[in-house]
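2024-03-11 09:14:02 INFO worker-7 job=invfold-0412 stage=load source=structure_tokens
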């Protein structure tokens, strides 16, 4: 299958080390399953391959965080925190945040409280946008109150009402509240745009919001343009916004069919809306907008099974490509087919999609996550989400919206105590619980301690030389983390210690483990009991507080057990079906793959007789399997039944393609499911044929087939048969299209001849009687060869030629056109340039910046421009081309200065690198045009190389504003186009 999507030019990019790249999302509630009361879910994360799902923040009413709104997405803000919204809990919802470094959480706003009584609750597809650096904007409501647009200032952690949407007056004389839907989109004109979906007496609306003043302007969708507009994942291209409507298009009716959906274009300059694409039977009812792979290809999700009038029915959804240049749709994958079919079972996708930094696309369906690779055009099943992860906790089903990508800096677990008095000679440790640092440096009183290179600061027997102020620097490719300092004071004196021992294995939720060894200490989990009952995984130890200070026991790591799984056995022998084996007297069948350590905690599984060898030889009929178990569960492999083979019956001739073959053809000879055949030709043994291993026959001759059992005994009477080659040629009558006897055209034209029948070959004869062959169903017409000729279409099937069709073609030469330019480079500031005259005279000039026979550099813009001179003699047209280069002529060079900041290449096409030599904590980049207007979104910077992509900007000179640890740097960059 050939797809437009695959013909994409991808740029090379610097890969981040995948260990720290994570995808975070919000999982919606799922109904409690048997043995599992989990029903709220929350924020989850997966690794850079969308695997190994982990629940970061469970939404729980006891913590008054609530449930996610349908379609809500997370926001990674410039302060490094992850923000999100919940609804339908105590009050009317929350704005919360999670610190990816410490996994600590905080409720920023409790909507509906006395402080925010009229804000309402976050609605469907309610998400956040950082419209200005340090300012987050979102929307809530309504219930009975107007919908609210709010601002959250990260600097002073204040929430204020930016705007209140006006009510809608309907024909019944009543005022009705208005909602917003989706993430507000920050357009290049500096305004936020959001959709208000259809309701009550009015249709869908586009709301334009001034992020500074809160002023709101509403634009209604014209009748017939679309219905049930989606407000999420709008995209901007050439000064126009594009969004989808779930309904609308052909067959749409408020009282009948719901329509297949449309794409709507909103002109930012004129505020005019028009429908630019209808969705189809095969790609219908889009759920939201798109993500952009490049300027010509966007990806989105829609219902994918055939449209049944009036709705999506049991549609499973699909991933599709939208091409904004010509507004065409292209289905990529149905979610109801492999590899997602077994996991989705006919349920429409509830999530969204994300383009990762590795150029792959990640999305969710009802039961998990998938990965789409645009380069390979492949879809792969990734982490399941609605599953028991070994401890009884269900992560959730799918994601409410698209995930976000986070490059996670080194993590640590915050501790309430950072000052310690310890006994000299005692065991002491301080565990940061880091899992992702690639380099750890500990300093004592500012001096590096080379012996301490682990995230866990530990002394087997601490001395006075170890006391002081300890600091730690954790580093990975995403940045640097510096946990709070700790102070250690070491005191002399006698002390006692505790040695912890006990069970370290839990078998899921509800299981317990018991730890013992308390010698007057306090458990890390709290309490001073002689033994500790553990119900959740973790690190446990004892702390002994004594007159000289603190001493600590050893640590025990309590974990959930991996389930014991029996192996998939290999079979070296003859089988019939999935679980039946034939054993012959005096021979054996070998079962294998019982390798040690491959499953559970046992060194290997146990065969049915109690042995644990890697292989087992079957010599007699019986039942054979492997049994694996550990402290938590057990599992049995496939069970094989071995038996003596049956007595063979009369042979049966089973040929896949029949006995009559064309030259070069072949046929397969198959054995029935309960038989084995032996094949002879002219009395000579050819091969043995088993049910799963047919024989390939590709030569003529007389054969003999005898039935045997799987022990090569009890041979039956032979069955004779003959394979015949060189059968008849095809009987079809091909017709060349266009159906003409003579066809004339210019020798520069591109025209195809085609036919409706296959298989065929083309033969064309010129003056030298040379033939060409092509098995395609169409062929490109060659006007120039011999200035004409004949095309002969002949049916062919490998056994000979059938009927033919003939067409005569005649080419007309195009006029010889000559034209060149005197100088191929001009400056942007130069005036209009006269174009030199082409020959023959009387032709026309075309190209960027061309008017009549002049070229205006300012109109064409910076870059290379192809100018064409065309001349027509009334029949055919000839042309000549030349390339003119428009240079900015400003002398701007690559920016490199003493501040250690490099911008390259410069000029560029909007894709460039900002390299920062020094180490810093927080850095952001914003881009402004020549008028001082901000373009694009805020980019977070890291030490080293930062890739900036703004390929949708017009050519010109732009200003870079870099804010690094509070200090502002200004740089200039020139963007050109070829």
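2024-03-11 09:14:09 INFO worker-7 stage=emit residues=978
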């Amino acid at each position: 299958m050939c797809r437009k999507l695959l013909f994409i030019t991808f740029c090379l990019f610097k890969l981040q080390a995948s260990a720290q790249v994570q995808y975070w999302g919000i999982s919606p509630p799922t109904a409690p399953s048997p043995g599992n009361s989990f029903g709220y879910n929350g924020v989850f994360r997966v690794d850079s391959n969308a695997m190994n799902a982990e629940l970061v923040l469970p939404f729980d009413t006891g913590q008054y965080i609530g449930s996610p709104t349908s379609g809500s997405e997370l926001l990674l803000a410039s302060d490094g925190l992850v923000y999100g919204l919940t609804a339908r809990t105590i009050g009317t919802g929350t704005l919360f945040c999670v610190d990816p470094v410490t996994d600590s959480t905080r409720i920023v706003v409790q909507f509906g409280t006395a402080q925010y009584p009229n804000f309402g609750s976050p609605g469907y597809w309610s998400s956040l946008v950082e419209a200005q650096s340090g300012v987050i904007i979102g929307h809530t409501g309504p219930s009975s109150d107007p919908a609210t647009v709010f601002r959250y200032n990260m600097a002073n952690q204040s929430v204020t009402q930016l705007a209140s949407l006006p009510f809608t007056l309907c024909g019944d004389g009543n005022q009705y509240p208005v909602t917003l839907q989706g993430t507000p989109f920050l357009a290049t004109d500096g305004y936020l745009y959001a959709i208000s979906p259809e309701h009550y007496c009015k249709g869908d609306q586009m709301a334009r919001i001034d992020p500074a003043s809160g002023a709101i302007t509403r634009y209604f969708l014209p009748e017939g343009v679309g219905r049930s507009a989606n407000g999420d994942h709008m995209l901007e291209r050439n000064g126009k916004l594009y969004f989808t409507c779930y309904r609308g298009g052909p067959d749409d009716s408020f009282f009948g069919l719901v329509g297949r959906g449309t794409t709507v274009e909103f002109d930012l300059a004129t505020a005019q809306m028009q429908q630019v694409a209808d969705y189809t039977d095969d790609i219908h009812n889009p759920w939201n907008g798109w993500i952009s792979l490049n300027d010509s290809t966007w990806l989105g999700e829609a219902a994918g099974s055939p449209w049944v009038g009036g709705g999506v029915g049991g549609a499973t959804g699909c991933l599709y490509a939208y091409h904004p240049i010509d507004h065409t749709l292209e289905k990529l994958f149905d979610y109801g087919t492999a590899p997602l079919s077994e996991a989705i079972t006919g349920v429409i996708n509830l999530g969204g999609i994300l383009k990762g930094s590795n150029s792959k696309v990640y999305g969710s369906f009802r039961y998990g996550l998938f990965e789409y690779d645009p380069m390979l055009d492949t879809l792969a099943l990734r982490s399941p989400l609605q599953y028991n992860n070994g401890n009884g906790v269900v992560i959730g089903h799918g994601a409410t919206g698209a995930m976000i990508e986070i490059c996670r800096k080194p993590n640590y677990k915050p501790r309430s105590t950072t000052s310690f008095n310890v006994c000299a000679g005692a065991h002491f440790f301080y565990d940061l619980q880091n899992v992702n640092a690639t380099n750890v440096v500990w300093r004592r009183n500012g001096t590096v301690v080379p012996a301490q290179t682990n995230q866990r600061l530990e002394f087997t027997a601490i001395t006075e030389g170890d006391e002081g102020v300890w600091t730690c620097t954790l580093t990975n490719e995403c940045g640097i983390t510096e946990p709070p300092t700790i102070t250690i004071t070491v005191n002399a004196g006698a002390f006692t210690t505790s040695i912890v021992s006990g069970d370290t294995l839990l078998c899921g939720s509800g299981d317990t483990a018991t730890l013992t060894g308390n010698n007057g200490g306090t458990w890390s989990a709290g309490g001073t009991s002689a033994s500790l009952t553990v119900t959740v995984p973790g690190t446990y130890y004892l702390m002994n507080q004594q007159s000289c200070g603190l001493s600590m026991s050893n640590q025990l790591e309590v974990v959930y057990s991996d389930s014991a799984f029996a192996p998939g056995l290999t079979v070296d022998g003859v089988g019939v079906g999935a679980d039946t084996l034939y054993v012959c007297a005096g021979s054996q069948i070998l079962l294998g793959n019982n390798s040690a350590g491959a499953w559970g905690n046992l060194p290997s599984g146990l065969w049915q007789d109690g042995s644990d060898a890697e292989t087992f030889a079957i010599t007699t009929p019986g039942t054979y399997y492997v049994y694996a178990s550990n402290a938590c569960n057990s599992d049995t492999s496939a069970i094989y039944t071995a038996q003596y083979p049956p007595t063979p019956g009369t042979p049966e001739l089973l040929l896949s393609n029949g006995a009559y073959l064309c030259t070069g053809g072949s046929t397969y000879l198959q054995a029935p499911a309960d038989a084995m055949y032996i094949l002879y030709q002219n009395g000579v043994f050819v091969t043995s044929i088993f049910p799963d291993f047919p024989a390939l026959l590709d030569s003529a001759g007389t054969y003999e087939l005898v039935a045997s059992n799987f022990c090569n005994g009890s041979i039956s009477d032979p069955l004779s048969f003959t394979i015949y080659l060189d059968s008849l040629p095809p009987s079809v009558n091909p017709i060349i299209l266009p159906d003409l006897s003579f066809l004339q055209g210019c020798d520069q034209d591109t025209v195809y001849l085609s036919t409706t029948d296959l298989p065929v070959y083309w033969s064309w004869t010129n003056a030298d009687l040379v033939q060409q062959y092509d098995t395609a169903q169409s062929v490109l017409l060659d006007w120039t060869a011999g200035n004409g000729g004949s095309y002969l279409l002949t049916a062919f099937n490998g056994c000979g030629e059938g009927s033919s069709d003939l067409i005569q073609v005649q080419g007309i030469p195009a006029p010889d056109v000559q034209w060149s330019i005197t100088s191929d480079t001009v400056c942007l500031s130069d005036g209009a340039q006269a174009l030199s005259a082409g020959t023959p005279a009387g032709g026309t000039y075309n190209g960027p910046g061309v008017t009549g026979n002049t070229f205006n550099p300012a109109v064409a813009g910076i870059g290379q421009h192809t100018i064409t001179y065309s001349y027509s003699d009334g029949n055919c047209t000839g042309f000549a081309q030349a390339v003119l280069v428009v240079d900015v002529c400003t002398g701007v060079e690559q920016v490199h200065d003493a501040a250690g900041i490099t911008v390259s290449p410069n000029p560029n096409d909007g894709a460039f690198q900002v390299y920062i030599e020094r180490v810093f904590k927080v850095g952001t980049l914003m881009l402004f045009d020549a008028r001082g207007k901000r373009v694009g979104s805020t980019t977070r910077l890291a030490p080293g190389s930062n890739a900036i992509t703004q390929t949708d900007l017009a050519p010109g000179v732009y200003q870079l504003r870099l804010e690094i640890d509070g200090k502002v740097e200004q740089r200039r960059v020139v963007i050109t186009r070829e």
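2024-03-11 09:14:09 INFO worker-7 stage=report msg="The longest strand covers residues 801-812."
2024-03-11 09:14:10 INFO worker-7 job finished
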